[in-house]
Each structure stands twice: as structure tokens, then as C-alpha cells.
Sequence to fold (476 residues):
Amino acid sequence: MTLWTATEAAEATQGRATQDWRATGVSIDTRSLQKGDLFVALKDIRDGHDFVAQALEKGAAAALVSRIPEGLSPDAPLLIVDDVLEGLSRLGAAGRARAKARVVAITGSVGKTSTKEMLRAILSGQGKVHAAEASYNNHWGVPLTLARLPQDADFAVIEIGMSNPGEIAPLAQLARPHVAMITTIAPAHLAAFENIDGIADEKASIFTGLEPEGQAIINADLSTSARMIAAAPQNTVTFGTAKSAAWHLDSATPAGEATVCRGTSPQGPLLYKVATPGKHFALNALGALAAAAALGADPVISAHDIGRWAPPAGRGTRERILLDQVDETFFDLIDDAFNANPVSLAAALDVLIATEPTHGIGRVGNGRRIAILGDMLELGPDEIAMHRAVARHPGLAKITTIHCVGPRMHALYETLPRAQRGIWVETAAEIAPQARQLFDAGDIVLVKGSKGSKVSLVVDQMRKLGQRAAPMEGTE
Fold:
């Protein structure tokens, strides 16, 4: 199905098409480009203009460029604009303007991607849903998602993130959501903000993009909740554990590898299941259900379909790794290596503490809880104190050994009781080759850290030690 014709795209971007063409998709990466895509030659670490010829050879319908790349035929199928990123933004705005979809935008310090995927699971049973496959939530990711928006989609789920002040409002105004949701506020990106109130104010700027009569969905459990509610329109709905919340969580009970949740919505009692342990997931699911209701989705179908969601890779996926199929020995791995801040780390530790290891199959005898923790980045001037404070986490004594990775995590390492200290290394590359010595069969191992800490290298090494069994979903 045609997504953009040359005429439509030229009008949207105020550019010039060198010939007639029809695009069935939009791509910014030749590695994932599909035949028929419009290739957008963005400039980042590399200049996308250097890959235009390759994109056309792979079957791109045309390329969005600001100049004709050297060696390319002047009559190649191009859409020439003054600035490629601005052209993409205009294309996204046009995609949003022509769509019939009901749009929900999500922001928050933690849980944006998970909640986006929850909404995809909820809404896909009630219409055609458009959402980015990855965390496309920045100044190019949001317009790209909107430029890909099919005209016949019933719902669109847009994730909006930030690293610095002033980034969310322009993206929200581009997305023009009917519903805007804030998952939570945490000390992430504090290096760019004076305090957590500044983060809350930036997140609340998502409401500047709401359509007339649009609805705000806000977590009521936060120290900054009142501040964000004051910044929101009158049409605001809250969710959380507080009884005053319009959608409130009464209980979240672990049930094997799932969580059974009971709550109350404006329509009455609510029962739903999340196919992973963790109260934070139960809360995000409640917010997603509130957002779906605001979009007009059937609440009964929504409560059923939330059970189809599972965490994205690197955000709490739990899996069993078979070490020896004959002896049936294994360990359980919680891969939470994509992101970390004090709130998400606390949630991941809670899941590890609540999970029972397997006894009697390893050298040690009793299965243990093991944590491998990498640096939490972009926390500002108090980052060392925040790392040290992890040692005071309730129930931390149930974790047998904590290995620490990175200069910031050295503060935690020094604070831990000696019996609980594993090893400390400066970089993940130093600990990854030692992976097999860090655990025993029957153990459950959490790997958690900011993406920049590269503790995903440890996850990769652990997966190579055996064969993956049936997936078991886990933390944030």
C-alpha cells in the first residue's frame, strides 16, 4: 500500500521531487531498509547522503536529501529539501494531519517503552495500531514514527523522551495527541536539570500538544504529582495506589511468572493480569488501561488483552539458560541492561528479591540471588550518593552477592557489607569474560545498568554459556 507519493511528499516537505515515485514506507537506515521505502538521509555520526546510492540499489523508492550526492545521477528518484531533519519533521506533521487515528503520547522517566508496548497489546484487539518498533522517542524518532503513520490506522502510540530542557513540547505539538500520559518521574537526566521538579515540569510540557478536549493521564503516587496536575488541562485522570486516584491499584499479587492485579476504575472493580512479576509493571499497566479507555477502547477487552504484553528485550526479560541438558542444570537470567536510574533499579531489585532461586542443582547447593550492577548515568552532581544509597534498599540482604561495574558503582561496592561484595571492575569488558565464575546452577542473576555502562556485554556472554529455554518475562 502506498504511504507517500512524490507529489504528496513534496507538498508536505516544501521540497522538489526529481521524478514521480511511490513509497510504501520510510527508513533512516540502509541496514533495515525495505524495498519501496523512502530513505531519509539524516546526518548523525555519519552523513546519510553517503548511503543514498546504496539505499537506491537496495530498492528504495526515493531518497530525502538536501543535496544530490556525488556520483549520483541527477535524475535519480530524490526529494530535495533545504534541511533533511526539517523535511522529516514536516513529513511527520503531514502524516499526523491526514490520519484518522486516535493518538496517545507517552512520556516519563521510567517505563515509556514498556507502556507503549502495553498499549499496542491492548489496542491491537480493537483496531489497527501504529507504534514504533523501537524506542524512537527523540527529535528524529517522533517525526519518523508520524511519517510512517498509515492513513487508515485506528490508533497511534507515540513515545516521547528527552535528555535536556525544552525537548518534549515541540515533539508533543508535532504529535498532537488526544491522550497524553506520564508514567513516573525519577532522577534521570539530572545532569541537565536543577532538580526533580525541573524534570516534572519538562515531562508535563507534553500537555502543550494535547488536542482540544484532550485528556491527561498522570501518576498520582509521586511527590511531583500535584505539580504536574496543575500544569495539565482540566480533563485529567489519575492512576496509582492512592485511593484518591481515579484508577487505583488495590493489590498486585505474584502468581508464578505473572502478577494478578485488582483495582478500581471509574466504571467499577477491575481485574487484570500482567505476564511478568513486578508492582511497577502492574502500575504502568493500570495507566495504560486508563489511557486506552480515554481513547474509547472497550475496558473489558482491554483488561483481557493486557495479558498479552511481555517486556521488550533488555528491559527485564527473564529467561532460563540450560547449562547441561543431560543433568538438567540451569540458571535464570533477568536481562535489564538497557537503562537504569534509582527508581528503575529499585524496581528491578524488588523483583530479584521476590524471586526464589532453584535449590539442589548446583555446586553450592542452595540457589542464590546474584546482582551485576552497572553505573547509572546522567544523574547529576549527587550521582555518587545515589549509587551509595542502593545499599539501603529494603530487603537487599536477600541478595547473596552483588558485583559492581563502573566508577560510580564503586561507591556502592565500598558501602556493601564485605560478605555481600562480589567483584568491582572499571568496565563491563573486564567482567564479561568472567561470567561463568559469577554464578552457579540454580542461581537467578539480575544484570542491570544504564546502556552506556555496557553491561549488556555480560548478558551476551551469559547467553553463550548454554541454551535458552522457554522465555520467562521479568522486570522494567
Notes: The radius of gyration is 24 Å. The chain is about 30% helix and 25% strand. The longest helix spans residues 279-294. The chain has a mean pLDDT of 93.
